[in-house]
Write a structure and sequence with these properties.
Largest sheet: none
Shape: globular
Structural class: mainly alpha
Oligomer: single chain
Distance between the termini: 41 Å
Radius of gyration: 18 Å
Strand content: under 5%
Length: 142
């Protein structure tokens, strides 16, 4: 049945019919498959920077799979995989003067800095696809 629905959606898309076919899965399934950890932190900082909370959660999931201790080979740290140099710049721009790299494993600080950075990139690039590309691959690559 799902294959039939996908095939029908493809035919409608090719035909130019603007129809959306949505299959819903039980809420418990989605929450098990895609757990939303640190929800209160994500929602709070999304609201502070007028970001979509689902987008912010998706960035956290893509970057660290909700692991606050995550570290990349490039040196990025925490939930939103911020480079220490980037985080130090964010701290200075937002009034902080006592930044240490260990702060980045604190989910509250990491998501706050990451949300600020997404907002900053949105101001710079305007289009969310460019914002996300700059966030993930670096501004020099966009």
């Amino acid at each position: 049945m799902r294959l039939l629905t996908l095939a029908a959606a493809a035919v409608l898309a090719v035909a130019g019919v603007g129809a959306w076919i949505v299959e819903s899965e039980p809420d418990f399934y989605l929450r098990t498959r895609y757990p939303l950890e640190y929800e209160h932190i994500i929602r709070g900082h999304a609201a502070n920077y007028e970001l979509d909370a689902a987008l912010l959660a998706a960035v956290v999931y893509a970057e660290s799979r909700f692991d606050p201790m995550a570290r990349s080979d490039a040196g990025a740290v925490g939930l939103m995989q911020l480079l220490p140099e980037t985080a130090k710049g964010i701290a200075l721009r937002t009034g902080g003067d006592r930044f240490v790299v260990a702060d980045l494993v604190d989910p509250e600080i990491n998501v706050r800095y990451g949300a600020w950075y997404l907002d900053h990139l949105r101001d710079r690039y305007g289009q969310m696809r460019l914002v996300l590309a700059a966030y993930h691959a670096g501004q020099g690559n966009v």
